[in-house]
Write a structure and sequence with these properties.
Elements (H helix, E strand, L loop, with lengths): L1 H33 L11 H27 L7 H31 L13 H26 L2 H13 L14 H4 L24 H10 L8 H27 L5 H25 L9 H22 L9 H32 L2 H5 L2 H21 L4
Helix pairs in contact: 2-9, 2-10, 3-4, 3-9, 3-11, 3-13, 4-8, 4-11, 8-9, 8-10, 8-11, 9-10
């Protein structure tokens, strides 16, 4: 009987301890939920914050627009090695931005102790980034497939046009696509008349045919233009959303404002250089010659406009609130997935392994490009220590 009584007492004590532990956990959850900041760290310095609008705008404009302007205005005599450095340095910047400046902050935001509910039950930052990568791959896969094979009549017309200028002057055009019309053409290793070197990116295997189409009808871009634009707009989307939240954060930052100010000037300039170098390297048709400028301007103005908006709502915007943390974390996760896909697939794999030029280049050139890319990634990762 003594043993049974002792067992009962032990069970009661365990149940009491379990209930007390559960009550403590609930109280802790409630207190942490109520512990979310209800105000921001804004501490004045309005003059310095207004100056940041213009300083960051100048840096972003230089990074995103100047490479395009220099590429299109050969009279500036910018050396080719400068474009080489800008291109691969920018690639490294984009890759580091994805991991250090987007994915890591997204994890911090979505795992903040003051959050409650389903958002805390899964590693949503990594999950959202993963879903974004697969969605982007499917989108570009479809864009490349249908932009390359979806308009075989253009190929027929072009080939028939050449045939008609040869001995087959009485050849009749047929609508049935031929095998030659659907297979990628061989790559030339010399530069064409427009100054573009075929094979310098992952779409280079059909660049020759695209350039020919542009010459035949300058009002209609080549068939790979849609696929190229998909990749470019994906990159643009990712960096712009990131830049918006950067501006809002800077607007209401507190004691760390001075450090954040300096770091974000370099951050936005380097990131703009990554975007601008891609815009400059894209062979735009004459009917779209102003598009890279508009895209560069959209990036350059995104942070300054967000900074101005943040200053306007500085008395009500709370970056540490539950809503702000979730919104910021979700969009940072999406942007991280975009830049991870763009950086690893579009910039690293295709520029180095699938590029006809890089495959035939001397080892010194390949190692130089790799080293410059590592430098860009290293500097951008270092900036992550402060912002």
């Amino acid at each position: 009987m003594a043993g049974l009584e002792e067992l009962v007492h032990m069970v009661v004590r365990q149940a009491t301890a379990t209930v007390a532990s559960a009550a403590t956990a609930v109280a802790s959850t409630r207190s942490s939920s109520q512990g979310c900041p209800s105000d921001n760290d804004y501490n004045g310095q309005i003059g310095a914050r207004i100056s940041a609008i213009f300083v960051i705008l100048i840096g972003s404009l230089f990074g995103a627009v100047f490479p395009v302007f220099a590429q299109k205005n050969q009279g500036l005599k910018v050396p080719q090695w400068a474009f080489f450095i800008a291109k691969y340095f920018g690639s490294g910047v984009i890759i580091a931005t994805a991991f250090i400046h987007l994915l890591a902050p997204a994890c911090d935001a979505l795992t903040n102790p003051c959050l409650t509910g389903p958002i805390t039950e899964y590693d949503w930052a990594e999950g959202i980034a993963l879903m974004t990568i697969f969605i982007l791959f499917f989108t570009e896969l479809m864009a490349m497939r249908y932009s390359t094979f979806g308009h075989t009549h253009n190929h027929d017309d072009a080939h028939s046009h050449h045939s008609s200028r040869s001995s087959h002057s009485n050849h009749t055009h047929h609508n049935t696509p031929t095998i030659a019309a659907t297979l990628p053409l061989p790559v030339r290793t010399t530069s064409d008349a427009s100054g573009h070197t075929p094979g310098n990116d992952h779409l280079g295997h059909t660049r020759d045919h695209v350039d020919h189409d542009l010459e035949i009808n300058k009002d209609k871009p080549g068939e790979d233009f849609a696929a190229q634009m998909t990749a470019i707009f994906i990159l643009e989307f990712g960096v712009i959303f990131h830049s918006i939240f950067v501006g809002l954060t800077l607007a209401v930052s507190g004691a760390e404002f001075a450090t954040l100010y300096v770091v974000l000037v370099f951050h936005q300039t380097f990131e703009g250089l990554g975007l601008g170098s891609r815009l400059a390297a894209t062979p735009w048709p004459k009917s779209r010659k102003n598009t890279p400028y508009w895209m560069g301007l959209a990036y350059a103005f995104s942070t300054p406009i967000a900074l101005a908006v943040g200053l306007g709502v500085r008395n009500s915007y709370v970056p540490g609130s539950q809503t702000s943390l979730i919104v910021n974390g979700v969009f940072d996760s999406i942007s991280a997935g975009i830049l991870i896909y763009t950086g690893l697939v579009e910039l690293m794999a295709h520029e180095f392994m699938f590029s006809e030029v890089m495959r035939k280049a001397r080892l010194r050139i390949v190692l130089s490009a790799f080293g410059v890319m590592c430098l860009g990634a290293g500097l951008m990762a270092l900036l992550g220590k402060w912002a």
